[in-house]
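Anyone have tokens for Phosphoadenosine phosphosulphate reductase domain-containing protein? Sequence:
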Amino acid sequence: MTRTGHAPADADLPVVLSYGMGLDSTAVLARWLTEPASRDFPLERLTVLTAMTGDEPDVTRRLTEEHVLPLLRGTGTRLVQISRTSQRGGYTVLDDSRTPLRLIMKGPWRLSDELRASGTVPQLAAKRRLCSLHAKGHVLDGWLGDEFDGRPFRHVLGFATEELRRAERDEGFTATGRRPEYPLINDWGWDRQQCAQYLLDLFGEPWSRSACGYCPFSAGHRGRAELIERWRAEPAIGAQALALEFTAMALNPRSKLYGSVAAQDLARSHGLTDVLARFEEDLRRQRWSVYEVRRIVHPRRDDPAAKGAAWRSVRTVFTGNHDDAQHMLRATSAGSVVTDEYGITRAEIIPRTIGYPAIEKALALAPAGVLDKERPAFGAWWERLHHQTAPGTRRSVTLAA
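Reply: yep, here.
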């Protein structure tokens, strides 16, 4: 898979380190800045490139500003901070300096802005980190394309030895001029524990995992304890996770942040009263909307009896204060309103039909801000399937798209 070192012809190329501010990439950067023998290039050829999601915990900012920025300033190493510009994409340069004084953690468009507008949360079931691709990958690619315009450059990523598969997938990404390198895997043979110990020895305090406060991919069995302590230390980011999940679950009850476990479940079971209080206060300040949510679940291409792609249509029916929105929901749904254990109020209008393609329709009460959205062909498909569905064929099915 990954190459050992780099080709001799690459020796004089510019070097870019994708810097996520976490354990792995910080270990690479810190060693380069403090141990010249660990690199084969002068620091004037290095650009440290970081894409801000806008939702990193404050501990990430503090650690990086206290320990890494002084090293960058002392060596005159270039740090470029960028972020996504808007929902449509693009990138904004937040800072480009060889003497960076601070991190600019929030750009004009945060990942949480996208999640609020779509009424979704990152999905573990998808396995691919599409949230990271949108908030970081596309942003980094845009800057790299403009900076080098097809000219060759060495692109260094901080994948530790446990992440060999990620490195293999990354190596298959063949942007023009890009020469990927993975020093932790190929040159040093460092795993995450070795990275953590190196930073602890160098800086005198543990380095925190870099991830958004609601990231489901960092909350596995090993990372969940750290997530809980992060919420305990910074209740605002825990409340943000609960708020994003609340809206997503209103539109799709199966959108729990952590697979079968909801963020609210974690906060309650670990006694995070400050997080819950902050979340409830945030809800009280919101304007509320009634959303019409329709789904079409297509059959799988290779098996007509199996569930395939699901299409969703979201339309705002009403927006106002909470009481008015709730009254509108009850008046519109003819008494079929249910409030679940998470405080989410929904009304099932058309239970999911039997077989595929299937349809379903619900009304949901959630904070305002989700944008109306459906794909161009949705309306025609819905009209055809709704017309074909006989009332006697409908029944509730627990599976939701």
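Residues 8-203 form a domain with the Rossmann fold fold (CATH 3.40.50).
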